[in-house]
Structure of Histone-lysine N-methyltransferase, H3 lysine-79 specific:
Amino acid sequence: METNYPLLELEKTTIGTAEGNTFAYFILNIEDTSKMLTIIAEPCNEESDPDIYVSRTTSQVTQGDFYIDNYMWKSTNIGPDKLQIHPEDGEFKPGIYYIGIYAYKPGLNTFSVVYNQESIPESLDLKESSEGLLEKWKYFKFRIENPGESRIEITVSPGYGYLQLYVSTNLYYPNEDEHTWSSGVYVVNRLTDPEDFVMELGNYFDPDPYDEIIKRNFTRKPGLMELDKMVKIVDKTQEPLRFCIDTDDWKYSNQMCYVGIKNLEDEPVSFKITLREVLEENLLTGMIAEKLDIFKRVFDKVEGSSISQNERKRMKVSGKSEFTYGEIDFVHMAPVFGLCKPQAGEVFWDLGCGVGKCMGAIALLYPELKRVSGVEYLDKLYEACSSTMNHLKTFMSPGPEIEVKHGSMLEVDWSDADILFSSSICFPNELIDGILEKCHSLKKGAKFITLKSFPENNIFEVKYSIRVKMTWGKTGVYVLEKIV
Ligand SMILES: C[S@@+](CC[C@H](N)C(=O)[O-])C[C@H]1O[C@@H](n2cnc3c(N)ncnc32)[C@H](O)[C@@H]1O
């Protein structure tokens, strides 16, 4: 394919520009495919965010909503991007490579682009575990079979000595400078300012009460707790490094997991690494698994999103943000209910219950509740919720009373609630103000789980502020308690 794209030369940086949402094109010529190809694109200023798309077969690489995805490789991080094509990649063949640099930011994006080729260190395909002697570095790769449904558990046991572990979702050879996650003994002098360290940890720390339902028994990501771990290893207790990457953290990454292990000792050390992919559903405790099974049977064929979409059109409320649809996730909502300590005889309300997923989840998890109620405005969602709740009741005896009201949450009496939930993230301020006004008649001690915070008031205290997974991703959730 003849093009007049600029030819990139090995290790020579080229500056390019592209208007927002368009591509600038380059070519490069690869003769030697025994060496890994690395292409780096970096923004030259804050108004720039270049992404890399590469093809060997199509000169006009495109992607996105308006174009066909016709690239073979891509790297689309925020900020600088680095794309590596490995000799083992079946598509890595000699010839011309077409590089499309996509300007992600609006306006003129100015960027630099450079490529190099390096001999590769050895990288082992890890089936499950590997052991041996570690000189300085060893690299492994591991295929993830069920991204989005499984978590990755890595265990490294040093026979003796201090090790560091680096994990990446897209770099073949993760190291100190480039990795997605790391664990192990940190060389203290790299952390010149303790403040930086704490700040970095702050980004990692996620007060998700996940452990109650899906046991980890693994260090999650480097977090404050990691300090203890480091001390333990420094003490040479020979406790293995146990490291877990949660399902959600891997969800949007590619299917390969790349691991680098570094030996900090002067002598080689013996070591063993075990990598396991564990399906999340296999980690649930027996009771929860049974209840999730019923939940799935009841809800699997109920298409809340499309019912809502059709109803919004039909009832001519498409422009109203409060009708935006999204649902809770059973497993991730369970510990949030736990924070409210539901008691026998209590009443739960979901304000804007959709097809009733939140009602179904709490009814299954806390059958000792007196009543589970919900209110929904959209006609067909209300109908779907009513029939779904009837279906649920066939699996529950005894169980709480279940009641679905049709209408506006501002016109229904929910003052008997002990625990309330409202997936209020898209509710306009007037609706939130209206809810808050009605909350004055709730009893003291009532708990309110809300996605949108309430305006300043003197009736609620924020008990917890957490991040919880919903169908659209993780979102902030407040658990409030009525104090008057
Ligand atoms: C984000 S969805 C949450 C569905 C469900 N609670 C869940 O989490 O799985 C919010 C729901 O609130 C409903 N809604 C919005 N405004 C409402 C109002 N004023 N009264 C009753 N329902 C309302 C919407 O139609 C929608 O079904």
